[in-house]
Design brief:
The protein is 79% helix and 0% strand. The protein is built from five helices and no strands.
Length: 117
């Protein structure tokens, strides 16, 4: 149990140091600082953790973007369907009574409340 606390503490210290170092690296705009590999700055183990974390965040951003695009496609399809339905309803309302009597459903009348343009 004591070992678990030690490991957790070490991880927290590493995370804090990493954040501190990343903030400093972002503030420095020299090409040598930005071109250093993770291994040279943080060591191999921490480097792998950082790269995995960055990769996870990037994948999550891509997935969120994809989900937003899919949602927008659903909204567009729904709006197009509503526009089509309204246009069809207006076309039906504009049919003359004799034609409606020939082609409409027997025993029904057309009573439209929505104004058509």
């Amino acid at each position: 149990m004591e070992e678990d606390f030690d490991v957790a503490f070490e991880l927290q210290v590493e995370e804090a140091l990493t954040e501190s170092l990343l903030d400093n690296v972002d503030a420095v705009s020299s090409p040598t600082a930005s071109s250093l590999p993770y291994d040279a700055v943080f060591g191999a183990d921490l480097s792998n953790l950082l790269q995995n974390d960055h990769l996870y965040k990037y994948e999550k951003e891509l997935l969120d973007e994809y989900n937003a695009e899919v949602e927008m496609m659903h909204w567009r399809l729904d709006i197009r369907r509503q526009i089509h339905d309204r246009a069809l309803a207006c076309e039906i309302l504009k049919l003359p009574e004799e034609e409606w009597g020939r082609w409409g459903i027997i025993g029904t009348s057309r009573t439209g409340t929505a104004p058509c343009r």
